Amino acid sequence: MKLVRYGTRGQERAGVVDDAGRVRDLSMLLPDIGPRSFRRARWRRWPPST
Protein backbone atom coordinates (compact mmCIF):
# COMPACT_ATOMS: atom_id res chain seq x y z
CA MET A 1 0.00 0.00 0.00
CA LYS A 2 1.07 3.55 -0.69
CA LEU A 3 -0.16 6.81 0.88
CA VAL A 4 -1.29 9.41 -1.65
CA ARG A 5 -2.96 12.79 -1.96
CA TYR A 6 -5.50 12.88 -4.76
CA GLY A 7 -8.10 15.26 -6.19
CA THR A 8 -8.04 18.66 -7.78
CA ARG A 9 -5.23 21.01 -6.87
CA GLY A 10 -5.97 22.82 -3.61
CA GLN A 11 -8.67 20.30 -2.66
CA GLU A 12 -6.58 17.16 -2.36
CA ARG A 13 -7.73 14.33 -0.11
CA ALA A 14 -5.76 11.75 1.83
CA GLY A 15 -5.83 8.25 0.38
CA VAL A 16 -4.08 4.96 0.05
CA VAL A 17 -3.44 2.87 -3.05
CA ASP A 18 -4.30 -0.75 -2.26
CA ASP A 19 -2.67 -3.88 -3.66
CA ALA A 20 -5.08 -3.88 -6.61
CA GLY A 21 -4.11 -0.30 -7.55
CA ARG A 22 -7.37 1.29 -6.34
CA VAL A 23 -7.28 4.58 -4.47
CA ARG A 24 -9.10 4.35 -1.15
CA ASP A 25 -10.27 7.51 0.62
CA LEU A 26 -8.73 8.09 4.07
CA SER A 27 -9.99 11.63 4.59
CA MET A 28 -12.47 10.51 7.26
CA LEU A 29 -9.51 9.30 9.33
CA LEU A 30 -6.74 11.60 8.21
CA PRO A 31 -7.57 15.11 6.96
CA ASP A 32 -4.26 15.45 5.10
CA ILE A 33 -1.05 13.55 4.48
CA GLY A 34 2.08 15.52 5.25
CA PRO A 35 4.70 16.05 7.94
CA ARG A 36 2.15 17.28 10.49
CA SER A 37 0.07 14.13 9.98
CA PHE A 38 2.86 11.95 11.26
CA ARG A 39 3.87 13.80 14.39
CA ARG A 40 4.12 11.45 17.33
CA ALA A 41 1.53 13.33 19.44
CA ARG A 42 -1.16 12.85 16.78
CA TRP A 43 -0.73 9.08 16.73
CA ARG A 44 -0.94 8.83 20.53
CA ARG A 45 -4.60 9.78 20.13
CA TRP A 46 -5.30 7.18 17.45
CA PRO A 47 -7.97 6.54 16.39
CA PRO A 48 -9.04 10.17 16.07
CA SER A 49 -12.20 11.19 17.83
CA THR A 50 -15.16 11.95 15.58
Secondary-structure blueprint:
Blueprint: E1 2-6, E2 13-17, E3 23-25, H1 40-44
Antiparallel strand pairs: 1-2, 2-3
Task: Give a brief rundown of this model.
Strands 1-2-3 form a 3-stranded antiparallel beta sheet, with no helix packed on it. It has 1 helix and 3 strands; from the N terminus they run E-E-E-H. The radius of gyration is 12 Å and the shape is globular.
Helical content, roughly? Answer: 10-25%
Supply the number of helical segments.
1
- Strand order in the sheet with the most strands: 1-2-3
Strand count, sense and barrel status of the largest sheet are: 3 strands, antiparallel
Mean pLDDT equals 80
Unreliable segments (pLDDT under 50, ≥5 consecutive)?
none
Counted beta strands: 3
Query: Looking at the structure, what is the overall shape?
Result: globular
Helix and strand content put the structural class at mainly beta
Assess the beta-strand content as a share of residues: 25-35%
Question: Radius of gyration, rounded?
Answer: 12 Å
Domain count: the total is 1
Order of helical and strand elements: EEEH
Distance between the termini: 25 Å
Q: Mind explaining what this structure looks like?
A:
There is one protein chain. This protein has 50 residues and is mainly beta. It is built from 1 helix and 3 strands. It has one domain. It has a 3-stranded antiparallel beta sheet, with no helix packed on it. The longest helix is centred in the C-terminal third of the chain and has 5 residues. The model has no long low-confidence stretch (mean pLDDT 80).
